[in-house]
Amino acid sequence: MVKTMKRTLGTLSLAFLLSLAFLSVSETDAQAYSWNRTLSEGMSGADVRELQIRVAGWAADSASQTYIAVDGQFGPATTAAVKRFQRAYGLGADGIVGPATQAKLNDLESSNGTKHFSYSEFHSKDGSGFKNGKVSEATVRENVRRLMYKLEAVRVKAGNKPITINSGFRSVSHNSNVGGASNSQHMYGIAADINISGLSTNTVKNYAKTAGFSGMYNESGFVHVDSRVEYSYGSQQWWWN
User: Fold this and answer.
1) CA proximity to 140, closest of 189, 175, 185
2) CA–CA dist 69, 55 (Å, integer)
3) Class of residue 223 by CB neighbours under 10 A (exposed 0-12, middle 13-18, buried 19+)
4) Residue-wise pLDDT tens digits, 62-103
5) FRET partner for 42 with CA separation of 20 to 30 A, picked from 8, 9, 65, 78?
6) Per-residue exposure over 15-29, b if at least 16 CB sit within 10 Å of its own CB, e if not
7) Would you tell me how many other CB atoms lie within 10 Å of the CB of residue 62?
């Protein structure tokens, strides 16, 4: 009887430990992008496109009106952005996206957005979430995801200081209520008004000028950043004010 109980308890304990391990692996896998190959210049595909989204905030070393095209083609600009990312995270800056770089890229992931930003921070402040904008809810969500990766880069450049999102996506009605422009980039999920405690808006703007943002201006309490040049519904021209 005692032996039977011990065997039963042992079986239950093993099952419990296995279930915990399964949950741990499942949660990690659910958030981790599956990189199935080492990426380098000259390659193309959906994985290259995902890479470009994640290194888009490393578009330049200094203020420059340039951005990383998310086109799935691994060209010189993507290589340069990868090298900047690698240097920033203490990796060998060879421009090749192997296991170490892929692990660091995945470390920035979260099921709720990215490592330091959540989707809820970008929700329209009238309770609409990502609905009732100028594009679909799903499109807004993906646009915000791309925006968050750029802001992750700005955060690193600012010494890993937290970034506060004053305004992210806006529904059409909310944008109207706050006096936003008739074609405000906020209504597409490609803009944010941000501030970093302890840094001047000019300093924040200078960091953003290296991160591929094509629309930018600052007020006394925030810096507006957007990616208007990259989208067909954006204003299609650079505007740094």
Assistant:
1) 189
2) 10
3) buried
4) 999 999 999 999 999 999 999 999 999 999 999 999 999 999
5) 65
6) eeeeeeeeeeeeeee
7) 7
Can you count the helices (H) and strands (E) in the chain? Answer: 7, 7
Residues pairing with 218 in the sheet? 223
Q: What are the backbone angles phi and psi of residue 121, rounded to the nearest 5°?
A: -65, -25
Copy the structure tokens of residue 195: 């501030």
Where residue 107 falls (left for φ over 0; alpha for ψ -120 to 50; beta otherwise) is: alpha
Instruction: Please tell me the pTM assigned to this model.
Output: 0.87
Is residue 119 within 8 A of residue 106, CB to CB? The reply is: no
Q: How many other C-beta atoms can be found within 10 angstroms of the C-beta atom of residue 111?
A: 9
> Could you tell me if 187 and 174 are in contact, meaning their C-beta atoms sit under 8 angstroms apart?
no
CA angle 213, 123, 33 (to 5 degrees): 65
What six digits make up the tokens of 191? 């803009």
Tokens (6 digits) for 122: 């970008």
